[in-house]
Amino acid sequence: MTDASASRPDRPSPRTAFLLTQLGADAADRFAQRVAELGLTPRDAGAIRVLGRDPGISQRELATRLGTVPSRLVALVDELERRGFVERSRSPHDRRNYQLQLTAAGTELLGRLRVIAEAHQAEVLAPLDQDESVVLSRLLAKLAGGATIGPDGHPGYREAAEGLRPEASSSRR
After folding, report:
1. pTM of this structure
2. Which residues belong to the signal peptide in this entry (predicted)?
């Protein structure tokens, strides 16, 4: 493999963004396979994770955190509610809004998701030692901040908000 950085160690590889894309797609595919074993999609898993961390938030707030519009989130919440993982209740502060929280089944599912996420992270970071993992984490957080990607956002939610298929959205970038 020829790489310009091999002759110029003081510069990043011209393939860095491409490698990030490849690794991100591979990691996302593997995560999707793992959560599919629980009958979930990554979008489901993300919503459950946020609700586990911040019970009682509104659908509007959940949509904001996930980087989608509230109208696109309704079907996702409806399905999680139908499956018994999430429940809606009227907000005591604003009767026009609903608060979302995990049910007992949703909380149990969140525990299983955490085990999957930890195994996934360990697998993805296996080639790195502890110090390298910490440095990578900090650098990726810095890149995500520069790209205005929130800690809970994901391009899959944005694509859903825009009504785009992944192929269509990638051609726009």
Report:
1. 0.78
2. none
